[in-house]
Amino acid sequence: MSKRAVLVVDLQCEYFAGGKLPLNNIEKAATKAAGVIKKARSNGDLLVHIHHESRSPDAPVFTPGTGGVNIHESVKPQGEEPVILKNYPNAFRETPLKDMLDAKGIEEVVVIGAMSHMCIEATSRAAADFGYQVTVLEDACATMDLEFNGINVPAAQVHAAAMAALAFAYATVQTTNDYQ
C-alpha cells in the first residue's frame, strides 16, 4: 500500500466562474489537479478531498447549503474516497485529517487546490509541522489578486510568493510535469 496521500483542497464551485470568489487560472489548475487525481487513483495513493464551509449560515462566501460549497465537477470524489469538511484554512484544524493519515501509515502528502496563499499554505505548513514529507504541485493550485496597504498584488505574484515561502522551508514545490 502506498504511503502517499494526495490532498485535494477546496476545488469548489465558489472559486469558478459563477461563484462568489472566482480565482485566476482556476480552470487550468483544476485540469492539472484532475490529472494528479487520475494518477493517484492508478497508483493506489490515498485521495482525500477537502472542502471549506463557513461556520456562519449567513456568510458571504462558502455559505452552508449553497452550491458554492460543492466540490467542482472536474475533481469530484469517486467511490469511497474520503471527503473532509473544514471550517478553517488549515485542513488539519478541528478535522479528522491527521488521524486518518496516521491510521493509514501515510508519510508523504501532496497538496493541490485553492487558494495558494491561504488554505494551500496553511495545510502544507501544518503537514510539515506534523512530520509529513510535503510536496505542493504549484500548477495545480490557484489564487487571486490581493490588495495590501493600497498596493494591488496580481495573482501571479501572490502565487509566486506563497510557493517561494513554502519552498524555503516547508515543502518541495514542483509542477505536475515533474511529479512522479
Helix and strand arrangement:
Layout: E1 4-9, H1 26-43, E2 46-52, E3 83-86, H2 97-103, E4 108-114, H3 116-129, E5 133-142, E6 146-148, E7 151-153, H4 155-169, E8 172-174
Parallel strand pairs: 1-2, 1-4, 2-3, 4-5, 5-8
Antiparallel strand pairs: 6-7
Helix pairs in contact: 3-4
Keyphrases for this structure?
180 residues; globular; Nicotinamidase-related amidase; two-stranded antiparallel ribbon; single chain; alpha/beta; hydrolase activity; hydrolase; Isochorismatase-like_sf; Isochorismatase-like_dom; six-stranded parallel β-sheet; Rossmann fold
Short description:
The chain has 180 residues and is an alpha/beta fold.
Describe the protein's architecture and organization.
This protein has a 6-stranded parallel sheet. The protein has a two-stranded antiparallel sheet with strand order 6-7. It is built from 4 helices and 8 strands. It is globular and about 50 Å long. The relative contact order is 0.20. The two termini are 16 Å apart. The protein has 180 residues and is of the alpha/beta class.
